[in-house]
Amino acid sequence: MTRILVTGFERFGPNDLNPSALLMDRLSSMDGVVAAVLPVEYGTSVARFEVLLERHRPDAAIAFGLARCTDRIRLERVALNLDEAAVPDNAGVVRSGLRIAEDGPVGYWSTLPVDGLIAALEAAGIPATVSGHAGGYVCNHLFYGVRHGIERRGSAMPMGFVHLPPLPEQVAGEAGRTGMDLETQERAAVILLNGVRAITKAAMA
User: Fold this and answer.
1) From 41, 141, 148, 163, active-site residue
2) Could you say which of 76, 84, 148, 183 is catalytic?
3) Is 163 tagged catalytic?
4) How does pLDDT run across 12-70, given as a tens digit for each residue?
5) Is 69 marked active-site?
6) Residue among 69, 122, 139, 151 flagged as catalytic
7) Which of 60, 97, 110, 141 has its CA 20 to 30 A from that of 196?
């Protein structure tokens, strides 16, 4: 069976919870899925992900995180070689205007079938969109750091990053915001996993 590693993040900053962590609890019971919650820390998050890759040897990987500003499932196209955030991570570290890897390129593309996955989500009636890059905080740092490691190893393992919206209760009272309930986020994640599993099986055939 195709094995897929999925990760979420702990709560951070003013967010009382992180839907990506709650999602990991739900996905962990799926066959062929290894789920883990990572610390919202620049260096530690990448190191933990690398340990999971070494331990479980997955065929593909999807990292999930919270994007407080969106009400849609957001698939990231590119990880940039740049930490650019004024707020600290959960270890109190601030990184602004710094490269993630001195020996790395400006960016790495997601190796997930982004457009096909968006189409599958939309066909299921789940609000979804594509984003040009994953920002300048720990989510992008993880995305870039993991892709950099994959490229350096010469691996063809598909890997990408997905931002989740906040839950409805997290945006209650904010004009024009809906958030997205956890059940819909779980449905979206299953669609993504099935789509990635399909392309991975095809590549291995």
Assistant:
1) 163
2) 76
3) yes
4) 988 889 999 999 999 999 999 999 999 999 989 999 999 999 999 999 999 999 999 99
5) no
6) 139
7) 141
